[in-house]
Amino acid sequence: MGVLARRGATSILVGVFMIGLPHVAESRPSAAQAQKPAAQGGRRPTITGGQDGKSAWMVAGYRQLQVRKRSFREPQQIVTELRAGSDVVNLTVSPEAVTVTRNGRTIVIDSAQAMESLQQLLGGSAAVFATKMLLSELEAESDLEAPEMSLLSVAAFVASLVGDIEAPRRLSDRFVAKHRGLLRQIGGGGNGSCWSSYTVELTGAWGELQTCMDESRDDPWWWAPIQRLSCNGIWLMRSESAWFEYLKCVSPMSNLPH
Question: How far apart are alpha carbons 21 and 31 in whole angstroms?
Fold first, then answer.
């Protein structure tokens, strides 16, 4: 079984999609597209996203960092490209494995030894450093609406690969705390709007992440880091599923609601 297959992971991945990372120009005109411009001062990322019913994509920029991700329903997989200058890191997350590629070298994270090798692979990576900077500068200030939450979710997962294992839970905690008022207003079950449905799904992902991380405390010391990474990967895939459904819901709007 794969690293993300534990604790019934496959049962929660309905609606998750795969990524191929084509250029944005290759997207069909009929695909639902949405853009969120940067705020004045350049402290907000530029985010472009869309879906065509089968796949969802995002292209984002922040300072020197460029992020491209694309997801398809079948097979269930998320592929992300991080680029800063000439440094490129490719990340693939699926129910079976988490795979990272840089400088022509690929590591499948399935053991403690693989985790050690990953630290060596990503050490000195400008793309990873820029991704961590994005998370550090925005997680406490972001509006955590769907576009930025989707981008920061990827950044938090990347941070968890290089030592900040609590980054996804920290971001998820803040999302739930920030939007708890909405959940109370709608009775916790959603009111049918695109945003409320997204919020309810991410709150469910938050609860599952809490349980998964707490249960990992009982795992052997040599396996616990892999299990925590698995928890974060499941959370990321569920978050991506919510992002795809959100895009489907708001289309064919030309702008993502702020």
Answer: 15
Residue closest to 54 by CA, chosen among 76, 34, 38, 39: 76
Domain residue ranges in the chain: 6-250
pLDDT in tens, 61-75: 999 999 999 887 778
Which tokens hold the place of 61? 């920029």
Q: How far is CA 23 from the centre of its chain?
A: 19
The runs of H, that is alpha helices, within the chain are 112-122, 126-138, 146-161, 167-185, 194-215, 224-250
Q: Give just the sign of the alpha carbon dihedral 175, 179, 184, 187.
A: negative
Q: Is the pLDDT of residue 2 over 50?
A: no
**pLDDT at site 84:** 98
The model's pLDDT over 205-215, given as tens digits with 9 standing for 90+, comes to 999 999 999 88
